[in-house]
Structure formats: C-alpha cells, structure tokens
Amino acid sequence: MTASSQTQNQKIHDVSSKGYLNPIWAARADKLQSATGLLLGFFIIMHLHFESSILISKEAFYHVGHFLEGGIFSETGHGFPVLTKFISAFMLIVVIIHAAFALRRFPAQIQQWRALRSQMTIMPHQDTKIWFWQLITGFLLFFLAPVHLYDMITNPAIGPHLSAERVYHQDVWMLYVLLLPAVVIHAMFGLYRVAVKWGITTKRMAALKLAKFMVIYLMIIGIASLMTYIVIGQSLELPVTPFVPS
Ligand code: HEM
Asked: Which regions span the lipid bilayer (predicted)?
C-alpha cells in the first residue's frame, strides 16, 4: 500500500468514526449537541408542567399562559402573543441545530443497523438499549417536533378554550399522542446520558432510576392534561370563544 493510499484510508476511517476530519471539530460538535440537548431537556420539563396547569383549573392555565406571554409587562395584562411566535421560532432553531449534530451518529447503512441489533442481542447492555431508543425517538422527533413548533408560530393562540379547540376540534391530539412519549423518553434518557457522559454525576444507577421515574411522571401529567383538553374541547360549541376568568 502506498503512503498516499494509507493517508486516504486513515482519512476515511477518521471521517466515518467521528463524523469529522478534525478531532477539535468533533469535540465541539459533541459539546454543542449536549448543550442544545440540555436546553431542550429542561425546556420540556418546564413546558409540560406549565401546560399541565390545566389540571388545576381553566383559570390556572389562563394565568400561566398570560404570564408566559409577558402579561406583567403589558398594560392590559393580556401579554404579547407575538412572544410565543419568537420563542417558538427560537426553539425550532435549537431543535434543528440539535438534530443536525445528531445526524452524524445515525447508522447510515443496513449493515450498521444489523451490527447494532446483533450487539444488543449478544450483549443486552442497558446503555446500548437506551442509545437505541434515543435513535428511534430522535428519528420520530425529527418529523414531529417541527410540526408542533410551526403550528405555534403560525397559530400562537393559547388559552383553556383556544388550546382545547386546537387539541380536540383541529385534531392536534393525534400529533400529541405520538409527540408526548417520543419527547419524554428522548429528553429524560438524553439528560441521563449527558449527566453520565460529562461526569455531572458518578452515580449512574441513581441517575438512571431518576430518568425512569421522570419518564413515568411526565407521561402521567402529559396524558392527564391531554385528556383534560379533549374533555374541555368536547364541551365547547363552535365557533369557540376565548376563556375569560369571572
Ligand atoms: C416555545 C415553543 C412551544 C410552545 C409555545 C408550545 C406550546 C404548547 C401548548 C400551548 C400546548 C398545549 C396544547 C395546545 O395549545 O396545543 C403544548 C402541548 C405540547 N407540546 Fe408544546 N410548545 C412549544 C414547544 C414544544 C417542544 C419543543 C416540544 C417537544 C419537542 C413540545 C411538546 C409538546 C407536547 C408533547 C405537548 C402535549 C402535551 C400533553 O400531552 O399534555 N412543545 N405545547
């Protein structure tokens, strides 16, 4: 083998193993993927809590919505729905950056998929299984998350009745039924992986238990909220009038 073909082979190996020729760029890509993942993971924990205030009452969700829309800064107290558009557009950019850097980890060929599946059968290691589910849920989110964010950019009306109208009368529940488990699994196990990878915790088993607990907990409040929106939506007559607290 000539020196030039050896160099070429080395380059191919480097590109295929790390996704980048330069290890500094590979490290930067890793950091950016983890940083955007952290941001998205914490965002989704906050988001599902804010959004589940509908479980307390319509008034509670109404006030949370207005607070997040900057109600305290507007004279009427009704906030600026345009803020929802900007934050949704920002989150869409974060999702795109996160997905773009994650793409290099996808098994590109059927042989790589087979190798991964057989590795999981021979050595059913828990972290390999988690990584596999990160791949599947990440793939689903690639299609589902932008649909929701585009919806929030073009139709930012939020409120007990307006959200229930979207969920029930505009059939967006079909999107949420898929988006909820995909994002909860992806985000919680993603946070676990980041914590272990960057040495944020050395208690791997405890971190894994916490991630599993959070998946169950967020699924419960997410499903309960979704069902509440559906019940409210069913009780509304069309055209829907926005909820105003008495
Ligand atoms: C700033 C951006 C976002 C805004 C303003 C927003 C707003 C909302 C609102 C108001 C709802 C309640 C139902 C409705 O009105 O349609 C909702 C539900 C939901 N959102 Fe978002 N969202 C944002 C970003 C995201 C992201 C990035 C994800 C995950 C990738 C996400 C996942 C979900 C899920 C799974 C539900 C359904 C929750 C349930 O079943 O209880 N959202 N979102």
From this structure: 32-50, 82-103, 130-153, 173-192, 213-232
Q: What is the mean pLDDT of each run of 10 residues along the chain (246 residues)?
A: 53 51 84 96 98 98 93 75 94 97 80 80 83 94 98 94 97 98 98 96 96 98 98 96 92
User: How far is residue 145's CA from residue 180's CA, in Å, rounded to a whole number?
Assistant: 10
C-beta separation of 116 from 154 below 8 A = no
**Ligand 1 pocket, 148 CB below 6 A?**
yes
* 51 CB neighbour count, 10 Å cutoff: 20
Does ligand 1 have an atom closer than 6 angstroms to the CB of 88? yes
Q: What is the pLDDT of residue 17?
A: 47
Q: The tokens of 59 are what?
A: 């008034």
Buried b (16+ CB within 10 A) or exposed e, 110-134: eeeeeeeeeeeeeeeeeeeebebeb
- Residue closest via CA to ligand 1's atom 10 equals 158
* Ligand 1 contact via 51 beta carbon (within 6 Å): yes
pLDDT at position 109 is: 76
> CA-to-CA distance for 118 and 243, rounded, in angstroms?
54
| The model's pTM | 0.90
SS3 207: helix
Tell how far the Cα of 51 is from the centroid of ligand 1, in angstroms.
8
Check residue 22 and give its pLDDT: 79
Residue 79 per-residue DSSP state? -
Given a contact cutoff of 8 angstroms between Cβ atoms, the answer to whether 21 and 15 are in contact is yes
Is the distance from the beta carbon of residue 62 to the nearest atom of ligand 1 less than 6 Å? no
